[in-house]
Design a protein that fits this description.
By secondary structure, this protein is an alpha/beta fold. 40% of the residues lie in helices and 9% in strands. The strands form 3 sheets. A 6-stranded mixed sheet has the order 1-3-2-6-8-7, sandwiched between helices. Helix 13 (376-388) packs antiparallel against helix 17 (451-462) and helix 15 (420-433) runs antiparallel to helix 16. The longest helix is centred in the N-terminal third of the chain and has 22 residues, at 9-30. The relative contact order is 0.10.
């Protein structure tokens, strides 16, 4: 926003949070009180398919299901601060319309008839802001639904809210100056993860279903680029799927990196069960809009043998895994083996890094080789940083305006803007004095690059260099 504007980010924050809180207050008063108790449990425990089946048999109505999930979403907001745009009033109107349609025809509209759905605050929903956590994007209602939102509506799904996300959509926690911090649903001392932490927290608390996103009453859809949906899913104990690029339409989905194609952004579902994830994939994979996006490749049911072979590792030799993460892997391995599958432990490959050696040429060759021989996971992170930081994150942070940087974002944005001599000196000292084999490479990679060098880094992201460290030609 303009530095001398009378409407600072604090004004925007107050306005947006007041709008959300007012909508929640109205819904809290309108929803029958029994929906806030044990009466709602059958609805909250149902999968999307269960909900549609019960509605098709006349046992439930879309309005009854919706009220249960709205009440739970309100509770989730009270506990975790996971909601941004609230659509409860129009959702209730849509549920009534679905009930009237079913009463007249005796048929459900589609595979999501009456299922509450949520979307990460990157998807356009007509008449509502897509803030991305920026004050500069507030008070700008979107004119049309994103294609994925249209697909959900056509299938009978009911969008009920949008959910919180990380500032810049680029770090491992879920906080921004407009909507605040989303907490872990199991402990307020922990994060819900990023960037889709709002979706994950809501889903973990049964605030929506799940067939394409992180909720528990229908499906929720989130976007992921450089930061994966597996992080909030892991932090909050739910399911997610990060498909390949161009499987789900990005039409009507806003982002912080327009024009950046070095690492593709994708959209994917989060949910409470594998069945809901599969339903979401069937609904949106390969479905094109007027822009012929994405690739017309629909969901295909996998055909697998009864006995499968899984590979696993307990450490990537880059980020030290917590005992809890290792325990989760071992418990999964044990369960798979009991089910008759084969599980093989392996170690990630290691190899030298000729590019880093050239960057640190003043250092003794022996030291360079020592720094350059951690695993390919380390090299992959260096390439990731090298590509994303090529413009010093100027595009990524272009819409910040007067918004303050979150603590988790500050080192990311400031690091590449340090003088090169200072950054390389710190990297040298870390490796030389502290024997750090991880940070020097990523710090050297986080620098501004001319286009020709940027192209070389992008080529490395898909070349054999990641696997066997063959030098670029």
């Amino acid at each position: 926003m303009w530095p001398f504007s009378s409407h600072s980010y604090l004004d925007v924050t107050c306005r947006k949070q007041t709008q959300r809180d007012d909508a929640i207050r109205v819904a809290r008063a309108d929803i029958p009180q029994e929906c806030f108790g044990a009466h709602a449990e059958p609805y909250l425990r149902a999968t999307a398919q269960d909900i549609v089946e019960r509605i098709s048999k006349g046992e439930w109505t879309a309005s009854e299901v919706l009220d249960a999930y709205i009440s739970r979403a309100i509770h989730a907001q009270d506990v975790t601060n996971c909601l941004t745009e609230v659509l409860f009033a129009e959702a209730r109107a849509q549920a009534k319309a679905l009930d009237a349609e079913f009463a007249q025809t005796g048929k459900v509209r589609g595979p999501l008839h009456g299922v509450p759905v949520t979307f990460k605050d990157t998807f356009d929903i007509k008449g509502h802001d897509t803030t991305l956590g920026f004050s500069s994007h507030a008070v700008d209602p979107r004119p049309e639904d994103a294609l994925v939102v249209l697909l959900v509506r056509d299938a009978g799904g009911i969008p009920i809210c949008k959910t919180n996300l990380s500032q810049l959509i680029f770090f491992f926690e879920c906080s921004n100056p407009i909507w605040g911090r989303t907490l872990n649903p199991y402990s307020k001392s922990y994060s819900s993860g990023g960037t889709s932490g709002g979706e994950a927290a809501l889903l973990a608390m049964d605030g929506a279903v799940s067939a394409g996103g992180p909720t528990s009453a229908a499906r929720s859809v989130q976007s992921s680029g450089c930061i994966t949906p597996q992080i909030p899913a892991s932090f909050c104990g739910i399911y997610s799927l990060k498909p390949g690029w161009s499987r789900i339409s990005m039409t009507g989905m806003q982002g912080t990196w327009p024009g950046f194609e070095g690492i593709r952004t994708v959209a994917g579902p989060m949910g409470r069960s594998v069945d809901d994830i599969e339903l979401a994939a069937r609904l949106v994979f390969g479905k094109q809009g007027t822009e012929y996006d994405p690739a017309p490749l629909p969901y295909r049911a996998p055909e697998m043998p009864k006995k499968l072979r899984f590979g696993f590792y307990l450490s990537d030799n880059f980020v030290k895994p917590s005992p809890a993460c290792q325990c989760a892997v071992l418990e999964t391995v044990e369960a798979l083996r009991k089910a008759g599958h084969e599980c093989l432990e392996f170690e990630l490959p290691e190899g030298s890094d000729p590019l880093l050696a050239r960057l640190l040429a003043p250092v003794r060759r022996a030291d360079v080789l020592r720094w350059a021989t951690p695993t390919s996971a380390k090299r992959a992170m260096e390439i990731f940083i090298g590509i994303t930081a090529a413009d010093k994150y100027k595009t990524l942070s272009a819409d910040l305006g007067n918004d303050p940087l979150e603590p988790g974002v500050t080192p990311l944005v400031v690091g590449p803007r340090l003088p090169g001599w200072f950054r390389n000196s710190v990297a040298w000292l870390l490796g030389k004095l502290y024997k750090d084999e991880v940070f020097p490479g990523t710090m050297c990679a986080a620098c501004e690059k001319p286009v020709v060098e940027y192209h070389r880094w992008v080529r490395q992201s898909w070349s054999p260099l990641i696997v066997n460290n063959s030098p670029p030609r």
